[in-house]
Amino acid sequence: MTTETIINKAVSTMSKLSQNNVEEVADFAEFLLQKQENDEIRTFTYQTLDKSEVFDFLHEEEEIYNLSDAKEVF
């Protein structure tokens, strides 16, 4: 099914619901949209940070401890 077909089917179904149920569907749709936008922002942020050199110092830092420094090994 195409997106347009699904939307038309949803609208047709919603037109048969009570106002309270239509409001609940609308609230849920807004929740899903907000979740999608947050996921897109998070993905963009991770991709941007991954490409940047901001955290390169973490990889360049010299190792000051090794396994022989551990008092207890699990």
Can you walk me through this structure?
With 74 residues, the chain is an all-alpha fold. 68% of the residues lie in helices and 0% in strands. The chain is built from three helices and no strands. The protein is elongated and about 70 Å long.
SS summary, helix count? 3
Percent range for β-strand residues: under 5%
User: What is the averaged pLDDT score?
Assistant: 91
Overall body shape: elongated
The profile of the biggest β sheet is: none
Q: Which structural class do you get from the secondary structure elements?
A: mainly alpha
Secondary-structure element order, N to C: HHH
Radius of gyration equals 25 Å
Q: What is the strand and helix layout of this fold?
A:
Blueprint: H1 3-14, H2 19-51, H3 56-60
